[in-house]
Design brief:
Rossmann fold, 7-stranded mixed β-sheet, two-stranded antiparallel sheet, 9 strands, binds S-adenosylmethionine
Length: 255
């Protein structure tokens, strides 16, 4: 998944996310706008319940928050960036059932009381393992017994597959093998790949299953959320067809 277009900032902390607020749509990849099959919306519709409470963890500018507000009795929305939260608040307009809270999921183990439905889309992407595990603990702790988590995260398999297609492209364009393979392998075994200079975590399918199990959630499905090649390459050649790159979309239940 391509998240950023900028080259200057390197760590995904609050300062970074506040800074991208100015040109969020220009800099940050939107799952909502690129989910052509409407997988996330489909899962929100499936779990929608006018008596249930939902949470949008790392809500950003509120791409999904208004949809949650329409689908649930109340919504708890949080983000590390106050500037993004201000935009999310505006996006929710007249929906009076959303509570916004500035929270660092890596530091606050329990932002809210556990809720029925938790949405967390491309938030667990920070390279720092300590911060990422704390954030995962907070995200899973928000799911109450009998509740569901819908988690979207960049796919490590898609990352490696995209590199394969990049090398293929280089070879077709006449590069020699060494030239075509010129890609840093630092951190790659952890699924961390710099996207335009910002180290970004990508998860393996099985890694997600093990991680969620270890936090007491049972994975009920793992789907590919598929994107066109333009998400990875600015001008993909015409011959570059499917299979296409993807994020993982996991639905998990706390029994
Ligand atoms: C790629 S954006 C996705 C935003 C939104 N979920 C969406 O799909 O449009 C990642 C979001 O996670 C938030 N975030 C990153 N680290 C966080 C943390 N430690 N605690 C809370 N929010 C965080 C960022 O501020 C940003 O809004």
């Amino acid at each position: 998944m391509k998240v950023h277009k900028t080259k200057s900032r390197r760590v995904m902390d609050r300062t970074y996310w506040d800074a991208v607020a100015e040109d969020y749509d220009g800099e940050i990849f939107s799952v909502r706008d690129n989910d052509a099959a409407g997988l996330v919306e489909g899962h929100i519709a499936r779990f929608a319940d006018a008596t249930h409470i939902a949470a949008d963890l790392g809500c950003g500018v509120g791409k999904f928050t208004p949809l949650l507000a329409k689908s649930f009795a109340r919504v708890q929305a949080c983000d590390v960036s106050s500037k993004l939260l201000a935009k999310a608040r505006r996006a929710c307009g007249s929906h009076g059932n959303v509570e916004f809270r500035q929270t660092n999921l890596g530091r606050v183990p329990h932002p809210f009381e556990p809720v029925d439905f938790v949405l967390c889309v491309n938030v667990l992407i920070m390279a720092d393992l300590d911060m990422r595990m704390s954030a995962l603990r907070a995200v899973t702790a928000q799911v109450k017994r009998g509740g569901h988590l819908v988690l979207v995260t960049p796919s490590a398999e898609s990352m490696h597959y995209t590199q394969f297609r990049r090398v293929e492209w280089g070879l077709r364009a006449g590069m020699d093998c060494e030239e075509a393979v010129r890609e840093s392998v630092r951190d790659l075994h952890q699924g961390i790949r710099p996207i335009n200079s910002v180290p970004t975590k990508h998860h393996l399918r099985e890694e997600l299953i093990v991680l969620l199990q270890s936090f007491g959630l049972e994975v009920s499905s793992v789907e590919k959320l598929i994107y066109p090649w333009t998400v990875e390459f600015s001008r993909p050649p015409i011959w570059l067809q499917g299979p296409y790159p993807w994020d993982w979309l996991v639905v998990a239940l706390r029994k």
